[in-house]
Amino acid sequence: MLTLFQIYILSLAILLTASEYFTKNKNFDFNESNDSVFLISKKLVPKFFECVKACKFELECAYFTYKFTECSLYTKYAIYIKKVSQSSEIYTRLLTFNLNGLSYYWPVFNSSANDVVSKADLYGPVNAIFISNRQGIPNSAIRLSIGYYNLPARKYFDGDFTLMAWIRLTKTVNYQRFIDCGINKYVTVVASLSDGSTNKPYFAISNENSQSVPRVISAKPLILGVWYHLTFNFKNKTIYYFRNGVLDISGKLDNPISINRTVCFLGKSQYQNDPNTSADFDDIKLFNKALNDDEILNQYHKNY
Ligand SMILES: *[C@@H]1O[C@H](CO)[C@@H](O)[C@H](O)[C@H]1NC(C)=O
Ligand SMILES: *[C@@H]1O[C@H](CO)[C@@H](O)[C@H](O)[C@H]1NC(C)=O
Ligand SMILES: *[C@@H]1O[C@H](CO)[C@@H](O)[C@H](O)[C@H]1NC(C)=O
Ligand SMILES: *[C@@H]1O[C@H](CO)[C@@H](O)[C@H](O)[C@H]1NC(C)=O
Ligand SMILES: *[C@@H]1O[C@H](CO)[C@@H](O)[C@H](O)[C@H]1NC(C)=O
Ligand SMILES: *[C@@H]1O[C@H](CO)[C@@H](O)[C@H](O)[C@H]1NC(C)=O
Q1: Residue nearest to atom 10 of ligand 3 (CA)
Q2: Each residue of 117-144: pLDDT tens digit?
Q3: d(Cα 300, Cα 304) in Å, to the nearest integer?
Q4: Which of 174, 263, 276 to mutate to test the pocket of ligand 6 (most atoms within 8 A of CB)?
Q5: Those residues with Cβ within 8 angstroms of residue 92's Cβ, 6 or more apart along the chain or in another chain
Q6: Which of 155, 191, 226, 252 is most buried, by CB atoms within 10 Å?
Q7: pTM score of the predicted model
């Protein structure tokens, strides 16, 4: 049995832990919704702390409410169904933190291309605007029209990784890039959306000035105007390319060298002559580990 004092200390610890990650907003609630764009889950849990924990460990949980043991977790989009409501309260997440190896995350939301995990905010947009995402939420995806963004200098790659995003090609453009991230055209990691003008994605890693860099090329072209969830999963020197959660092709490549990648783009090539990209992007994630097949499929099925 816990003594009253122990219970007091325990509650204090729980409050402290909760306040480290969440802030309480009084007199607010969310409109009833079972739409998975807004609501992640609704469960009965006996203790407030379990609800705090549930939100804390669900990466996409941005808000939660706790009403008479009913714990509801909400996505960032729930801001759109937030309403004033006396004697209700919502809890808003303060920190996102590294979960399951996610080291960079650009959710693209509310006209922001910031990275919510590592502050590697995209900058210097060229021919870029914010558009509605695939669920119709306004200003929640990036549209490049022969354009690009810069990524700040970071050691983005070191051994295994998983790079994924929702991507919609809007135009056929020679060798257009998703990511091209290195120090120059000889030392870079390339996720391209089109081998030539075929719209077949490929992946390449080059670590030195060599003439022929191996590329792993999909046989399946992307169709213009269709959103795809694309994943490039690198494990033990093999790249696995998944389209909509399903493995498409794999092939051997060298480990990317671990360097500060100072010339790094979304939608632009290190080669001056490769055109800038025409595509839409959303929910860009980079994990510092290789996710397994189930995890990749789960990411595809997520609505947020
Ligand atoms: C959401 O609720 C509506 C009305 O209560 C219902 O018709 C619909 O099937 C529900 N959708 C899901 C995904 O549960
Ligand atoms: C909440 O739902 C009500 C009734 O459906 C609607 O009139 C109101 O605009 C909604 N509020 C928000 C903030 O979405
Ligand atoms: C969007 O961001 C602006 C500040 O840049 C903020 O004032 C506004 O409340 C945000 N809206 C939503 C829906 O998060
Ligand atoms: C990476 O390069 C940038 C730009 O040159 C520099 O500001 C930053 O300090 C470097 N970071 C590391 C970890 O070396
Ligand atoms: C990595 O691949 C090599 C051969 O390609 C294999 O011998 C080795 O066991 C693999 N390592 C792991 C940890 O899977
Ligand atoms: C990509 O855009 C930049 C900035 O507008 C421009 O300088 C560059 O020439 C473009 N690349 C190509 C191949 O057109």
Answers
A1: 110
A2: 788 999 999 999 999 999 888 999 999 9
A3: 10
A4: 276
A5: 22, 23, 24, 25, 62, 63
A6: 191
A7: 0.81
Length of the chain (residues): 304
Please check whether residues 51 and 114 belong to one and the same domain: no
Q: Is pLDDT at 18 greater than 70 in this prediction?
A: no
3-class SS string, 228-249: EEEEEEEECCEEEEEECCEEEE
DSSP 79: G
279 and 143 co-located in one domain: yes
Which of 67, 93, 119 terminates a domain? The answer is 93
Please tell me the distance between residue 34's alpha carbon and the centre of ligand 1 in angstroms: 6
Asked if 63 and 163 sit in the same domain, the reply is: no
Q: Tell me the pLDDT of the chain averaged across its residues.
A: 91
The rounded Å distance from CA 229 to ligand 5 centre is 28
Ligand 4 atom index nearest CA of 260: 1
Both 77 and 138 in one domain: the answer is no
Q: Are residues 85 and 174 located together in one domain of the fold?
A: no
Instruction: For ligand 2, say whether the CB of 31 is within 6 Å of any of its atoms.
Output: yes
Structural domain of 249? 102-301
Give, rounded to a whole angstrom, the gap between the first and last alpha carbons of the chain.
42
**Which of 58, 93, 128 corresponds to the end of one domain?**
93
Beta carbons within 8 Å of 215's beta carbon, 6+ residues apart:
195, 202, 203, 204
Domain count within the chain: 2
Contact indicator for 272, 184 with CB cutoff of 8 Å: no
Same domain, 162 and 250: yes
Distance of CA 230 to the CA centre of its chain: 11
